[in-house]
Amino acid sequence: MQIDSIVLYSKLGDRRQIDFRSGSLNVITGSSLKGKSTLIPIIRYLLGSGSPHTPTGVIRRSVSWFGLSAHVGDTQFYIARPAPPAGTETSQAMLLINPAGIPEYDELSVNATSDGIRAYLGNLMGIEDNANIPNEGQTRRALSATFVHSLYYCFQGQGEIANPDILFHRQNRDFQKQTIKDTLPYFIGAQGSAELRAREELRQLRRQLKIMQQRLAQYEIIQESGLANMQSLISQARSYGMLAEGSTPMTTDAATAALSEVLDAKWDLTAPPLNTSEYERLLEEASRLRDEIAQKDQQIRRLDEYAEVRKSYAVELDHQRSRLSSLHLLPDLKSEAQQCPVCAQSLNPSDTSVLDEVQHSLGEIDMRLRNVDREAPRVAEKRGELRASVEESRAEYRSTVRAIDELAELQRLEGLRSREIEMRSFIAGRITQFLEQAGAGEDDDLEGLRSSCESLQRRTDRLAQRVDGDAVRSRTDSLLRVVSRRMGEFAAQLGLEHASSGVRIDSGRLTIVVVEPSGPAYMDELEIGSGMNWVGYHLCAYLALQEYFIENKRPVPTFIVFDQPTQVFFPEDPRHIGEVDDLESDDRARAMSLFRLIAEVVASLDGALQVIVLDHAEFEDDWFQDAVVERWRGKDALIPPSWVEKFGDEETSDDVIEW
Predict the structure, then answer these.
(1) 94: left (phi > 0), else alpha (psi -120 to 50), else beta?
(2) Helices 469-494 + 443-467 axis angle, to 10
(3) CB 318 within 8 A of CB 370
(4) Do 652 and 33 contact (CB within 8 A), yes or no?
(5) What start-end ranges are recorded for coiled-coil regions in this protein (predicted)?
(6) How far apart are CA 428 and CA 267, in angstroms?
(7) What span, in angstroms and rounded, lies between the C-alpha atoms of 49 and 616?
C-alpha cells in the first residue's frame, strides 16, 4: 500500500491536493508552523482512527473533509472522512474503489464506517486470521493482529524519531507496547494462519489424549481390582432385590455370570407416575370444610349472643310491667275521683289522662313480652339446625383428613418405590458399563491403548513446542536477527556508534541493544548516546524492517512517513527556519547522509517502498531536489493562503497556521 494524494476540502468547497510519487522518496520541506507534523495524524485518521487530532487554529476553522488516494497493487481506492468537531470522534467515512479520479466537494457522502475501512484495508493487504495467545498463567487476552497494528511500522512522528525511550510509533501510549510485542510475531512471519491451524490441531489432540488416558486409567483399575468391584456390584444388586441371596462369588467368571444374570432378568426400570390430582382435590375440600365450620360456629355464637340480649330485654320488660301492674291496687279513679289516694289532693273526676297513659304503657309491655316469647322457639330451632350442620361438616372434615393421610402414606410408598426403581436402574447401568469396560480391557486391548496414548502424547508434545509462546518468541528473535544485521549495515553507512558491535532490535524491551564485552547496552537506558545515534537507529530500524516486510511479502503497508529526522542538528528555537547553510559542515554531512540512505534504500527496492519525509532541511543536490514534492516557506503551507484569508482572524493573521 502506497499513498498517491492527500486532499483537504474547505468549508466553502475548495480543494487542496498534495500529490506523492509511488516507490520513491518524497520530501515536503519547509519552515516551522506550516502544518508538516499534522500530516501523520491526518493520514492515520483517513486509515481508520477516530479523530485527526488537528491543532487549534486555521485547520479546524477551514477544513470540512479530509481525503486520501492510495493503492494496493492494481487496486486504487479513495477514502474521505468529515472533520469532526474539536474534542470529538466520528466513525463516518466514504470509500470509493477504483474511482475515476479525486471526487469534488459536492460528490462527498458517507457510505462507510471507520470499522469498515479498517476491515477492507486488512483484507486488501492480505492479513490472515491470527492470534497471539499468552502462555498459561498470564491474564491478558489473546490478541489478533489487524491492519491498525501494521501502522506501527509506517510512521515516525516528530516526538518519536529522536526519542531514545521508544523505538516504534505510539509505543509510549497506553497498552501499546504490549500490543506491539503481541502482534510483531505475526507481521514478521513468526506466527500466522499455520500456527492457528496448529493450535486448533493441538486442542483436538489434547482432547483425544485426555479421553484416551481416562479410558486407560479405567481399564487399569478394572484389571487391578476387577473382582472386588464385581463383588461390590453384586452386593448392591442383592440389597435391592435384583439378585437372589447366596454366597459371594470368589472368581471372575462366577462374578461375571452373576452380574449377567442381573441384566438378563429384564427388570421393569420405569417408575410409575404419582397421581397427585386426588390428593390436591382433598386438600382443597378440607380447606373448604374448615372455612364452612368456622362460618357456622360464628353464626351459632351470634344466635347465642342474640338469645342473651333477648333474655335481658324480657327481664327488663317484666320488671316494668310489675311496677305498672301495681297501680291496679288503687281505687277506680273514674268512680272515686274526689281525692287522690296518694297525695290526698282534690281531683277532677273528668281528668283520666294519667290513668289512660298507664294503661296504654302496660298494654305495650304485655305485647312486647308476648313477641319475645314467640321468638325464643325460633332462635332455639335455628341454633339446633346450625349445630347439627356443624357436626355433619366436622364428620365430613374428619373423613377428608383421614383420606388425605392415607393418600400421603400412599405417595410416600410410591416415592420409595420410585427410589428403588431408580437405584435398580443406576445399578444396572453400572453393571453394564463395568462389563463393557471389562470386555474391552483385555490384556491385548490394554497394551494397544497404552501404545496409542504414548504415540498421541509424542505428537501433542511436538505440536505444543511448535506453538508454545516461548517457541514463537524464539522464532521472532531469530527473524529479527536478520533484520538487525541489515540495520547494522545501514548504521555503518551512517557512521553510527556501535554499528559493528552486534547491534540489534530487542523484541522484549522494544529498543536498540548493543552487545558489548562488558554486557548489553540499551538505547532506552541512554547507554547509546547522541541525537545522531538516536535518529539514525530509528531510521535504520524502520528501513530494515520495511525491506524485510517487502522481500518476505508480509502484510504491512509499504510506506514510511518520517517527521523531521534532522531536528537534532537544528536549534530548539521553533522560530528557526532550519536552513542547512546554518549548520556546521559535519552536521550538514550527517543530515545529508540520512536522506541519502533513505534514497538508496528506496532505489534498491525498485519501487516497492515509498518514503515521505517532512523536514526543515533542503539540499541543493539534484537527487534531493528531484525528491521534493512541496516547499512550505513564506505563505505556502498545508493550508493555502486564500483559506487563511477566508477563515483566519485578526489574532492569527500574522501566523499562517497555529501549530
Answers:
(1) beta
(2) 20
(3) no
(4) no
(5) 195-222, 279-306
(6) 9
(7) 27
Which residue from 493, 490, 489, 487 is spatially nearest to 506, judged by alpha carbons? Answer: 487
Distance (Å, rounded) from C-alpha 632 to C-alpha 639? 10
Contacts of 290 (CB under 8 A, 6+ apart): 397
Structural domains in the chain (count): 1
Helix axes 252-264, 193-239, angle to 10 degrees: 90
| Rounded CA separation 171/187 (Å) | 16
Report the amino acid identity of residue 631. R
Strand partners, 94: 80
* DSSP assignment string, 24-73: SEEEEEE-SSSSGGGHHHHHHHHTT-S---PPTTHHHHHEEEEEEEEEET
Edge-to-edge strand list for the sheet holding 504-506: 504-506, 511-516, 519-522
Task: Please give the angle made by the CA atoms of 307, 312 and 313, to the nearest 5 degrees.
Answer: 95
- In a domain, residue 287? The reply is yes
Q: What pLDDT band is residue 423 in, cutting at 50, 70 and 90?
A: confident
Between the alpha carbon of residue 504 and those of residues 270, 498, 500, 545, 596, the distances in Å are 75, 10, 11, 12, 22
H-helix segments, 504-564: 531-551
Instruction: Label the pairing between strands 63-72 and 15-19.
Output: unpaired
Give me the residues paired with residue 15 across strands: 9
For residues 579-604, one letter each, b for 16 or more C-beta atoms within 10 angstroms of the residue's C-beta and e for the rest, the string is ebeebeeebbebbbbbbbbbbebbee
Residue 511 sits at φ, ψ, to 5 deg, of -150, 180
Residues 6 or more apart in contact with residue 299 via CB below 8 angstroms: 386
Residue 497's identity, in one-letter code, is E
- Among residues 157, 79, 127, the alpha carbon closest in space to that of 542 is found at 157
Looking at residue 196, its pLDDT comes to: 60
Query: What single-letter amino acid sits at 391?
Result: E
The values of phi and psi at residue 100, to 5°, are: -70, -20
- Using pLDDT thresholds of 50, 70 and 90, give the confidence band for residue 575: very low
Distance of CA 451 to the CA centre of its chain: 43
pTM: 0.62
What span, in angstroms and rounded, lies between the C-alpha atoms of 548 and 609?
11
Residue 24 resides in a domain:
no
For 101, 604, 637, 641, the CA distances from 631, given in Å and listed in that order, are 25, 26, 8, 14
Residue 490 near residue 601, CB atoms below 8 Å: yes
- Give the separation between CA 276 and CA 412, rounded to whole angstroms: 12
CB 609 within 8 A of CB 602: yes
Q: Phi and psi at residue 543, in whole multiples of 5°?
A: -65, -40
Question: How far is the C-alpha of 2 from the C-alpha of 571, rounded, in Å?
Answer: 33
Residue 617 lies in a domain: no
The mean per-residue pLDDT over the stretch 85-93 comes to 89
Q: Higher confidence at residue 273 or residue 234? A: 234
Cβ neighbours around 405 below 10 Å, total = 11
Confidence band for 658, pLDDT divided at 50, 70 and 90:
very low
Q: Which domain holds residue 383?
A: 277-415
Say which amino acid occupies 311. Answer: K
Is there a domain that residue 355 lies in? Answer: yes
Q: What's the CATH number where 407 sits? A: 1.10.287
* pLDDT confidence bin for 230, thresholds 50/70/90: confident
